Amino acid sequence: MNSVFFCWFSSIEKCSFTATLEGDTTFSSVQGLTIIVKSDQGEVHYEVNDAAEERALVLAEVYRYQSKFKFRAIGRGFNGGLKPLAESFGVEVEEEESSSSQQAKPQPEAERPVQKISLTKIDLLKKKVAISLEKKKIQQVKARVAVVFDASGSMAGLYSKGTVQRAFERVLAVAACMDDNGELDVWFFASKFMRAASVREHDFEDYIQRTYPRPKMFGGLGVGNNEPAVMHDVIKKYTKEEPRDDMPTYVIFFSDGGIFEDKKISNILIDSSKQNLFWQFVGIGNAKYGILQKLDTLPGRFIDNAGFISLDDLDQIDDEELYNRLLHEFPVWLSAAKAHGLLK
């Protein structure tokens, strides 16, 4: 049976979608129970396939988050059917009188919760990351994962359009799969830089909007490009403050170009080529990326410790292709780093 639900929200904060079965039938006998949520960004499929003796289920909910509405899969079950389901929402259900009222009433059936599933955008992206990691044969590798975002004046349009937030979400999924503690370390830079709060996958909503240092916030970072300053701070964190010789560091560095410090950037990469740190530069915004495009052939390094990909329109590349490209050179560097003793 297919069902289509339409909800119009005004003052409603949450809409729950439930299902019940009559008689002694349980959801263990129901096949193909799937919720499909369609949006401008595609479809989300949530299949309920782990129910057992439940006769009532809370399938999912749509809830208000700030000015938007979000979808969350729930999968909570009740053995007793409609009555405990209704009571879980605060609805009182009166017991029916029966001719056997003199007899002792049976104990209420125990409520058996189905494993709760919180399906988020990051959960879906993690599946794509896992596919790429398996293809690269590095699915067991743990690394410290960081992202650096260009916050110069020329990037303002990409921030206001939500492009940087979407880039952040796709990188956060990499950290959720690879990082040793599931955290993504974040930097922003322009003329100056800011080391932002690290973030986990459950705090991804509007992270960029909450954190992005606009010109009038945090004293402002200026409008120019100063890549060397933020690169030095990244190196400082992972080699001086929190050194690890058994854990690689994977840095994804987003920029729309406007780069003038070619010699300084080159020297930083040469110097850091003896550290267990890999730089993945990503050009966005259809701009001139300068020295970033030449990093693969930069001479004088101990090992090749950097890669560059150009994503002129980040929203036009599908997730699987993006992760294949982001992770293309990291396994090669990883092998070289181990072979040359940079990683124990």
TrEMBL record:
InterPro entries, sorted: Stress/Tellurium_Resist, TerD, vWA_TerF_C, VWF_A, vWFA_dom_sf
Domain VWFA residue range list: 144-326
Coiled-coil residue spans: none
Protein name: Tellurium resistance protein TerF
